[in-house]
Amino acid sequence: MDVDIGTIGSPTHRVVDVHTHMYPPKYIELLESRSSIPLIRKFAGAKEPRLIILPAEAESLDKTAGSTETSSSHLPGRPVTTHYSSLAQKLHFMDTHGIDISVISLANPWLDFVAPEEAGEAAKAVNQEFASMCAEPSAVGRLFFFATLPLTAPPETLLAAVGHVRSLRHCRGVILGTSGLGKGLDDPALVPVFRALAANRLTVFLHPHYGLPSEVWGPRATEEYGHVLPLALGFPMETTIAVARMYLAGVFDQVPDLRLLLAHSGGTLPFLAGRIESCVVHDGHLVKEGKVGPGRRTVWQVLREQIYLDAVVYSEVGLKAAVDASGADRLMFGTDHPFFPPLGSDEQGEWESVTWNAEAVKKALGDGTDAARAVMGGNAVEILRLHEDS
Amino acid sequence: MDVDIGTIGSPTHRVVDVHTHMYPPKYIELLESRSSIPLIRKFAGAKEPRLIILPAEAESLDKTAGSTETSSSHLPGRPVTTHYSSLAQKLHFMDTHGIDISVISLANPWLDFVAPEEAGEAAKAVNQEFASMCAEPSAVGRLFFFATLPLTAPPETLLAAVGHVRSLRHCRGVILGTSGLGKGLDDPALVPVFRALAANRLTVFLHPHYGLPSEVWGPRATEEYGHVLPLALGFPMETTIAVARMYLAGVFDQVPDLRLLLAHSGGTLPFLAGRIESCVVHDGHLVKEGKVGPGRRTVWQVLREQIYLDAVVYSEVGLKAAVDASGADRLMFGTDHPFFPPLGSDEQGEWESVTWNAEAVKKALGDGTDAARAVMGGNAVEILRLHEDS
């Protein structure tokens, strides 16, 4: 292995991956049963069924309907390899990259699409599967998880789900998309949910899925630019918008114990925090409404007191900005596995997408420094209580 | 003055503002004659007419139609003070902040809304007014400008306009929005325009205006969050998307001499460059099309060879990331005057929006260092040839 990002088993220098997804069997069944995105579909001639989740992929899905095309590069979505669902494969991936502990989570779009009356049971089933995986003999001590909430369910079901996931031994938080109950994370109806999560010391892993309306990518994007624009820009921009809306709605004031882990190093929040602050203090409307003045919690305070950032930013430049914004004690390494596999390999060896992020930590914080070790795992152990097996 | 950002007249340590707008009389007349945004409108009881340019402001414009509301904080847009149009006021602002030279430009949305048959003459008139301002005795040597192109005009008019602005003594480039000819800056029809600009050593100042579709700000934004989301996030995200589309279309390869100055330190490009790179090399479609491989110009190369960034990012964190991405020799100080005036003052003293950016340079690069001086003015003098009075 070119990049030795960790030494498995070293008690003081654990490497922890806080951004790593799994699709347990029940979730795969759910997606296979659907005819609109998100869905999993088999194509003639393609070895693996394909996962189609992004709005941009729906278009090419329509085009391939009834097609006998067998070249997989023309098929929409991505192949559902064993990396998506196999515990053994996840552990192999961890071993390959020197990762001691993974905090796994269901990938987008979670249960956002499930009918209200089914969401509660679906969440229970999925969370139970995650709990079982973490309790497998091969996984104990190496796997924890972020649970999934039934956001489309009635409020009492949703709040009950918080209680349920809190009781699951290896659960350390919940993964949440940006749609919330359908109106975004600045929806006042979500405040009781945030309060319940905070009261139960459940960290919220905020993760994008919806991106931006496709018109912003222009007429050439779908045919010529692959998935680069929605993934590289749409995802981090969506996260930034969601958290800025929460900030402006006062969620961080209303739920001071809320702890939010932002995917992709905050989207673009570290870079834009200064501009957000400037726009706030120069906004005549906010000033007149008394929202700007003494006692106001700044974006910088929120970044340093209530927000954690993963280190999935693929560059030294981004990593440094994330550290400058939130502090090296609030960043946590991640891989985004099973997404971004190396192209043209059997996916069993080293993944470049992983090593880029590990290299960024080394370059930004130094090789083997305390700060680098904290980001690679020490912070996650402390923040997510990974030394406790309960 | 609390923050001494420059000493006027010091020959080796010039302070240059490359991001500063003006509305010459002919442009104000044009906006006054309109009934849909962009427009300038007088309101009963309001001292100054108001400039309404953002899509988000159109809504509140409709609500105030026929209103006798006299509190200006309820009125849409912003007051057109003398800061928008008066040369004396611009020079006073420069003196107040220790700015030796300003490279002025028309503000958004420029002439994007002008009918094709009128655009050529409108551009000529506006550019001539800018040229005249720069030639005023009080301004000579202190003012240069970025010209405006008639983008809605027929191709031959547009290309002729490049020739015209090149002939104007104090013109050093053009300011450009992200819509281009209506299809974005990755439109192949723009390549001849970029070539003509590059051949004439005219820097393109890329500036946002259109933001993102308003639905992304959610149901509470218009009433509760002022203009923060469209300005703080929409503008920089628009810029990032535009330049990423140019990159993916190969514009930087096709026009190697193109020089692009990105507003607001590149929007979010420095922070997201790593993720863009990762998404490109992991995109099956791009790899199959041969767009990824040896010889490919990376985003980092474009940032370090073809892009300049202004230093309008309002934080040390952002400034450092911009420097890390493009180099301290490619950053240029700016103010965004006359936008973001201090609230509750007569606007004749020091502007906090300016000092935040000057402070960020000091904090990121050190007080009085060569790098800080370069960003505050030295780079602009060299890059935009401000030592040449022709």
UniProtKB/TrEMBL annotation, chains A, B:
This is Uncharacterized protein. It comes from Hypoxylon rubiginosum.
